[in-house]
Design a protein that fits this description.
It is a single chain. This protein is an alpha+beta fold. The protein has one domain. It contains three helices and five strands. The strands form two sheets. Strands 3-4-5 form a three-stranded antiparallel sheet. About 0% of the residues are buried.
Length: about 110
């Protein structure tokens, strides 16, 4: 049985796997990546603005806080953030690989 979160990610990407076939909704895929790009650009802009103004607080999510001439790094939170991001990417890729293997087995 597949993890529900993986199914949600595949659905957002416009990928549907049924009966040994992969269906790709390119409109959903394109929309997902456009939304992701916009979100990343907005976050990058906010971070850049915060750094320029000397006022940036990503303490909770990433472990980084910038105030005037002082930068605080919580390496445990930064490490946790990066590990979480890497785990999500790995899980997504594993799901795609399993689905492809399943399709290949059914076609053989």
């Amino acid at each position: 049985m597949k993890d529900e979160n993986n199914l949600d990610i595949l659905s957002l990407l416009g990928i549907k796997v049924e009966n040994g076939k992969i269906e790709l909704d390119t409109n959903k895929t394109k929309s997902f990546f456009e939304t992701l790009q916009t979100t990343i650009q907005e976050q990058a802009s906010n971070i850049e603005k915060g750094i320029k103004e000397g006022n940036l607080d990503l303490t909770e999510s990433v472990g980084i806080k910038v105030e005037d001439q002082k930068i605080e790094l919580d390496l445990n939170k930064t490490k946790g953030f990066l590990e979480n991001l890497a785990q999500k990417a790995a899980t997504f890729l594993e799901t795609i690989n399993k689905d492809i293997e399943e399709i290949n087995k059914k076609e053989s």
